[in-house]
Design goal:
Layout (H helix, E strand, L loop, with lengths): L2 H25 L4 H10 L7 H5 L8 E4 L6 E2 L2 E5 L3 E6 L11 E4 L6 E6 L8 E5 L4 E7 L3 E11 L1
Parallel strand pairs: 1-4, 3-9
Antiparallel strand pairs: 1-2, 4-7, 5-6, 5-8, 8-9
């Protein structure tokens, strides 16, 4: 094994390890659980001025899949029961990268199939109507399962 092969293997192993650590941190007792619990226990979400100014207009119930960090823009949105949210893939990386949005159980991170976009190519849209007051958690099952978004549906 030459020197370059060793470096590449080490880098790949490092990236794989970082991905595993991020996934474990997100779906183990912290991070995602704490965020969802806070939202479920208190529908008064207090955002800093910086956070609130970066959110789209409240009449714009669109979540963009960017392929970057964050993968979902916005990654938190609050809507009323009966409203719809549209996911749109705007990722133009490498001529267009497909994504897939799927709801997951906020406690386990396991897909719960409350909604599933299937494959969304660049420019594709997926719309979901929310008829129940609760918190929904979702991931991009194609490339970023460790990155989540949260939809809070209120009365």
């Amino acid at each position: 094994m030459n020197q370059n092969s060793k470096k590449k293997t080490g880098m790949i192993s490092s990236f794989a390890m970082m991905g595993m650590i991020l996934t474990l941190a997100l779906f183990s007792g912290g991070g995602l659980f704490d965020q969802v619990a806070a939202i479920e226990n208190n529908n008064d979400i207090h955002l800093s001025q910086e956070e609130s100014s970066s959110l789209p207009d409240s009449t714009d119930n669109t979540i963009r899949l960017t392929g970057g960090i964050p993968d979902f823009v916005p990654n938190f949105i609050q809507v009323n029961v009966g409203e719809k949210i549209t996911f749109v893939n705007v990722d133009g990386t490498n001529g267009g990268t497909p994504h897939a949005v799927i709801s997951v159980n906020s406690e386990t991170g396991v897909p719960d199939s409350l909604f599933d976009s299937g494959l969304l190519k660049t420019g594709d849209r997926f719309e979901v109507q929310f008829d129940e007051s609760r918190v929904y958690t979702y991931v991009d099952s194609m490339y970023h399962p460790q990155i989540h978004g949260i939809i809070s549906v209120v009365e």
